[in-house]
Structure formats: structure tokens, C-alpha cells
What we know:
Layout: E1 13-14, E2 18-22, H1 28-35, H2 38-41, H3 52-67, E3 72-78, E4 84-94, E5 99-106, H4 115-129, E6 135-140, H5 145-153, E7 157-168, E8 171-181
Parallel strand pairs: 5-6
Antiparallel strand pairs: 1-2, 2-3, 3-4, 4-5, 6-8, 7-8
Helix pairs in contact: 1-3
Protein name: N-acetyltransferase
GO cellular component, one term: cytoplasm
InterPro entries: Acyl_CoA_acyltransferase, GNAT_dom, N-acetyltransferase
Amino acid sequence: MADINELRQFPVLETDRLRLRQLGLADTEALFQTLSSEEVMRYYGRFPLLEQVEAAELIERFRLLFEDYRGIRWGIELKENAQIIGSVGFHAWAFSHNRAEIGYELNEAYQGQGYAREALTAAISYAFQDMGLNRIEALVYPENEASEKLLLRLGFDLEGLLKQYAFFRETYVDLNMFALLKG
């Protein structure tokens, strides 16, 4: 189990092409560009953002998520130009049960280039090694075939369909439960 006091400093993770770092208000426009896209948001569980202030509010929620030990959300930054192209992280962190749910999204201009896999691999490694997680869950719309394929390639198992599990975009939606165990 992780020592919660060791998790006070927000970690920066690096891969070959990416830097995963804490989002700040300077990233508002880049995050808004990603989250205002219907293509990106159709599987996010909410409608696209309409104003940049919504992206700034989300960045603040991500900060509080980490500060309150409920999760962590990194901005996905391209090393080559310091451009934020999406985010990845954990929420619904059940600290005493050593599990959390992973979430992620990429700006549509950067999808299909391996960035999501690269970012998720780094986040998962951090979760198992530094957060002390034993189980990582992912809830995915059954129609989101690209995300499901990515999770399966990363070793997640499909555990089942959760019927009308969430109320997103003013309707009840079914979600597939995927899980990856440390062992």
C-alpha cells in the first residue's frame, strides 16, 4: 500500500514523446480545444464545453482531485512543442481498497498515432508502483471500439456490461467494465 504522505508532490512522468504533468490555467485554451469537440466528448459522459471558463473550472477540479487524495489527472504534453493534446488520470480512487478508475481523452488531431497508449502505459505504471493500486478499472461506452481495443492491448479484461450504469447527457447509458490487476 502506498504511503499517502509520499503523494504530496505532483509527479511528472516522461515517455519517449510525451510529458505527463499537472495542468494549470495556462493550459485552459488547449484543454478547451480538446473538450469542445463533439468527436472527443461523445464518450466522455458530458456535452462538449461551450466556453473556455469551463475548461478552467475543470483544471481546478483536477487540482482539487489530487489535493484531496481522490485521484490524479495529468495533462498530456508533446515534448517537441509543449502542446497539451489531452489528459489522462485516475478518479474514484478507493485508497483503502487500492483501486481507482482510469480516464483519458485526446484531441482528435492526435488520435490514432499511439499517444494514448504511450500516456496510459506511463500512468498505469505509476499507479501500480507509486499509488499502490492493485486494480485499475475503466468504464467504456460499448460503442467506443477504439478505446476498448486500446484497453485490451494494454492487458485489461472485459468483466461485463453494466446496464444503465450512468446518467450521461440526459440519458441512462450502458457501460462496459474493464479491469487490470497488478498481479
